[in-house]
């Protein structure tokens, strides 16, 4: 079960695309696009839950009111400047050398029996002849991300499209996080994986390499939920439970593991709280579209509930 939970964490780290979903009517409280009004606002602003691996055409085909909103808003608030982040990622690692370099007195062959080493070596060496310089947890994240993101060109995803559209239509663009914020959050969110012993890291990596279909199945589930616009199922708790149940039995004890709670705190709660220091200021300046990952919208600490708590009327677009 520990390997399965680490697999779920690795998967959620990759997304926080092409599955087919039968169209059904969307319940209002499950909508992906919300109007923010009241509390002194002269004009409404809007909150959009995106999915970083879904093509931008989905917005126009399936999200009611999106064309009207894109015409009405004067500003876009996105999570991060994705183009700048991509450029920096290509040049620098997100975790310091102390965390991802393999100790000089340890080799991969020491972490596995002969059969498992032969398998891991064949997979990793086919992608990087110098893979042994980095610890297993590093490759665990690389391979889980590759499985998820190797389906759509980044330029065609919703988030990139919205940035391009804002640029071409001369709308003001704001970013809720800096590149360094993302680097620090990824580091904190994944730190538990890097701090466990090399033997345990090796075991988790082997599990992922042998069970890539689990990640694909998890991605297809997430993609289907998003395209069906079932927002409440995308809360951290509900999605984690569904992903774990997809691949085996799950108990309350499993869902309450301390590292799952810590992961949620770093990747969801703390980021939402930080964004809520900026969002009221932005929407007071003029009609703004706040476009962030859909997992940040539902739940007690979700942006919808937090905005309501401080006096805004937040209602789904019909």
From TrEMBL:
Q: Does the keyword Glycoprotein apply?
A: yes
The UniProt keywords, alphabetically, are: Glycoprotein, Hydrolase, Membrane, Metal-binding, Metalloprotease, Protease, Signal, Transmembrane, Transmembrane helix
Q: Which residues form a coiled coil?
A: none
Lineage top rank: taxon: Bacteria
Q: Name one GO biological process term.
A: negative regulation of Wnt signaling pathway
Q: Is the keyword Transmembrane helix assigned to this protein? A: yes
Molecular function terms, GO-annotated: metal ion binding; metalloendopeptidase activity
The record's listing under Pfam families reads: TraB_PrgY_gumN (PF01963)
Cellular location(s): Membrane
Protein's UniProt name = TraB/GumN family protein
Where does this protein come from, organism-wise?
Bacteroides xylanisolvens
